[in-house]
């Protein structure tokens, strides 16, 4: 059990404290060792005032600069990237950091549904940091969801194939670092 991946949750902006605690607990239930870091201010350079959104890369940069093994930044503001109107999250593939936004997850959601969405977005972006790509299994959390409906439909876990890819990636990376 000592090789459970360590995740640092980095609140950026003003994400709901309760949502952070729930997410930390739920990621713990998925086999991650989770630590909650001190809140960071939003990088104002990343704000596009006209859009009323922050560029996801600005928050990713903040997460990358944090001194931690693997960072999941969680924010309450709406994010965009590239030519996409919005993103639920972004990740540095095979890297140490990813970001999710809770902003859109509240839509038409009771507490339980919101909590499930946050966990799925977190698991999805973390999967990318472990080198997983998108998965063709619509129940797998690595399925690319374009809409909240798809997020609600898919599961919060990695499918057996993604799980295996992840296991092999972790063996490889621990072999390199030791
Ligand atoms: Zn993805
Ligand atoms: Zn999968």
UniProtKB/TrEMBL annotation:
The keyword Protease appears for this protein: yes
Keyword match Ribosomal protein: no
Molecular function terms, GO-annotated: metallopeptidase activity; zinc ion binding
GO biological process: proteolysis
Keyword terms: Hydrolase, Metal-binding, Metalloprotease, Protease, Zinc
Source organism, top-level taxon: Bacteria
Cofactor: Zn(2+)
Coiled coil: none
Pfam families: Peptidase_M54
NCBIfam families recorded: archmetzin
Name by which UniProt lists this protein: Archemetzincin
Species of provenance: Methylocystis hirsuta
Source organism phylogeny: Bacteria, Pseudomonadati, Pseudomonadota, Alphaproteobacteria, Hyphomicrobiales
């Amino acid at each position: 059990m000592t090789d459970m991946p360590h995740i640092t949750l980095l609140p950026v902006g003003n994400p709901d404290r309760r949502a952070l605690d729930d997410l930390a607990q739920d990621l713990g239930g998925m086999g991650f060792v989770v630590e909650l870091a001190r809140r960071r201010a939003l990088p104002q350079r990343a704000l596009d005032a006209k859009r009323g959104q922050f560029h996801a890369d600005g928050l990713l940069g903040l997460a990358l600069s944090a001194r931690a093994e693997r960072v999941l930044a969680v924010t309450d503001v709406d994010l965009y990237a590239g030519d996409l109107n919005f993103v639920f999250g972004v990740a540095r593939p095979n890297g140490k950091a990813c970001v999710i936004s809770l902003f859109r997850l509240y839509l038409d959601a009771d507490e339980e549904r919101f909590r499930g969405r946050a966990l799925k977005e977190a698991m999805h972006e973390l999967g990318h940091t472990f080198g997983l790509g998108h998965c063709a299994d619509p129940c797998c959390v690595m399925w690319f969801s374009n809409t909240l409906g798809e997020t609600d439909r898919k599961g919060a876990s990695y499918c057996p194939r993604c799980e295996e890819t992840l296991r092999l990636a972790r063996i490889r990376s621990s072999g390199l670092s030791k």
